[in-house]
Design a protein that fits this description.
Elements lengths: L1 H5 L6 E5 L8 H11 L2 E5 L15 E5 L12 E5 L2 H10 L8 H7 L17 H35 L18 E4 L6 H10 L15 H6 L6 H9 E4 L14
Parallel strand pairs: 1-2, 2-3
Antiparallel strand pairs: 3-4, 5-6
Length: about 250
Amino acid sequence: MRLEAKCTARTKAVIIVHFGGYLAHRDAWQSFARRKGLLLIEDAAHAPGLPAAGTFGEAAAFSFYGNKNMTTAEGGAIIVGSRSLRETIRRARSHGMTSGTRQRLDSRSADYDVTMLGFNYRMDELRAALGLAQLKRLPEWNDTRRRLSLRYRQLIAERCPSVMVPFTNPWPSAHHLMPVVLPTAIRRQTVVDRLRKLGIQTTVHYPPVHRLTFYNDLYPDSHLPRTEEFARRELTLPLHPRMTRRPSNSS
C-alpha cells in the first residue's frame, strides 16, 4: 500500500472519511491502524444516521452544517469511547477551562483554571433544540436519499453507461452526495454548463487538498495521481429529500 510508505516516526493518527455518506472499509482500516500503532479517527460529517458510523476508532466527528443530512445551521458533534478523551474535548470546546459557567454557579465557586489551549466551540440550546427536531426525521430523510440514489443509478446505467457511479450498490451509506465520475474524454465544464442551462445545479467534491494554496505551500512535493484524476473527473449531482422522482416512462 502506498499509505504504508507515507507513515513515518512522526505519524500519530490516521483520519478516514466516509465520503458521500458511504462507509469506509472498517476491518481494513482498523487492521492498518493496529499494525502501525496509530489512532484511528473518523470524519463522519457525511454519514449521520448510520449505526456503524462512529464505531471504527478513537473518535468520530459529525457535521451539522446547513447542507448536511441533518442540520443545526452550524456546528457538529464528536463521539468518543474514552471518558478521559471526552473530558479533554469538553475542555477544549470551552477555552480549555476546567469548569463552565453553570458548573461554577451550581458549586457557588468562581474559581477555574485553564489547563490547555482551547476554543469557543460550544453548541447553544437553540441549535441543540433544532438538532433534536431534525434528528427525529433523519431516518425518513436518509431513506428518501437512498431511494433517489438508487433511481440515479438505474437511469445512469440505462442512459449513460460510460459514466461511473462510485461504490457498488448496496453499500452502507447515508447518501449525503450523489457523485459520478465522467469518462476520461469528457470535459467536465461542458457538462456543468449544459446542466446549468437546464436549471440543474452541480458541484465538485472536492478539489485535491494538496493542490490548494495553503497546503501546497506547506507540502509542494506532494503527488497523488489517483486523487488528482478522480478530482478532475468527479461531478456531484443534486440530491436532497425534497427532490421527487419523475415517472420511468418520461422522456
